[in-house]
Predict the 3D structure of the following.
Amino acid sequence: MRVEFDRDTCIGMFQCVAEWGEGFEKDTDDGKADLVGGEEVDDDIFVREVPEGAELDAKFAARSCPVDAIVVYDDDGEQLVP
Ligand code: SF4
């Protein structure tokens, strides 16, 4: 499972941090979340694998984001959430 984070779209509501505290952290200076361990694959687009055991948290984070800045894909590249 893979998570993709569009940091440009993020408006810093931090629901993702509440849902998946090991996956996202607050950057209060920028008013944005950071994807912990994320690799920047495009301008402000960050990607990382979801560790085993964190799948539900990652999905909840994606579901909770009010601007759909977080997308979760399965291993076949199919979009699961949102
Ligand atoms: S929930 Fe969405 S808008 Fe809020 S901090 Fe996380 S990614 Fe950004």
